[in-house]
User: Fold this.
Amino acid sequence: MLRDISLNINGKIKTIRVEESKRLLDVLREDFALTGTKEGCAIGECGACTVVINSDAVNSCLVLIGQCEGVEIITIEGLEQNGELHELQKQFMEKGAIQCGFCTPGMVMSAYALVQSNPDTTIEEIKEAIEGNLCRCTGYTQIVDAIAH
Amino acid sequence: MIPRLEIHVPEKMDEVLEILDSSKANCRIIGGGTDIVPGFHIESPRFAGFNKLVDINRIEELHEIRENDENIIIGAGATFSQIISDSIIAHKVPLLQKAAHGIGSKQIRNKATIAGNFVNNAPCADSVPALLVYDASLRIQCADSARVIKLEEFLEGPYETNLQPNEIVTQILIPNNSIGLAGDFYKLGRRRAVAVSRITLGLLYKIADNKFDEIRIASGAVTPIGQRFYEIENFAKGNEVSDELLRTIAIKAGKKVLDLTGLRWSTPHKLPVLQKALYNLLVKNCLK
Assistant:
């Protein structure tokens, strides 16, 4: 059903009229032009669509927009502050943790959820935080390195 | 394709019960959505034929984990992340914590709920063998009544349960007499994370004077649905714990699985792996 839904995305509140069973992933990409969030597998296995909802990393392909009223959604576009990249983004570039780049936004968002809840993370905690994010290029070493710094 | 659906997001339990009561089979409950939404995507017939979803994530009482004189009470909407970090679960229901840890990925565990796991009742549902060895029961509510049923009676067949369209599972009850038993949980998947279980085993036991005073074994993924091995448990109880006994238990479990499933393409390699996995689990935990 079409419904007016008020959404809090990257700290901005906006009301849109939308089919309430549309996936959050599609709303971000199509209605908000936030195309940093990627669609990979669409069944919650690859993590390319990861965003942070109420401080938790979740797959936006598994969330329907009708469930999102009043929750706080952060996407990869929300990490940059005043024109400056987030430290995690800088570290991903610095450590060469990006090759094709398709998994990167999801990977950074999983890492963001981790460091927000626990800034002093161990390598094991990092690996657990990104276990739901597939990268087919880097072999993960540089990614873990980037998050650890 | 996601079908066009009406989505209700009530904040009170009464509203959930009212919606279920008035819409019956036209409505499904959505918790984490980690089975339903991919089900839509692959156009699974299991997730068709209804036009309404009721989201239960804002019902506070469904997220509570607490204990009283008789039971540990787990809210049906508790996510696996919540179960992993809860201190009551960690101290008193550790097999469930271990099973929860092996489910999906961080993102999945942040959303997926415990009741969603066994209401979906996939043969490989990881929470099931853990809950079965704890003799878990469920509290189920509808608009005008409530009932309590043992989990093993609730689980009727692969992807089938005893839940009626106007009902909701509200609590999982772990009886106090299951607390304090030693035990372990084993999962075999193709990789460590985001892996459908190939074999799961739950084991609880108590050894007194080197004899099994209590032993409970449950499997998942290798049987049509997760289930207990009562005959084998009864055979083992009262017997001296020895390498020979543990080996016999494992062999009997394999035979039981073969009886239940018949010969399958995977039997020649899976059956010995199951037997060895159970034997190793028993030896690791029970042999001094």
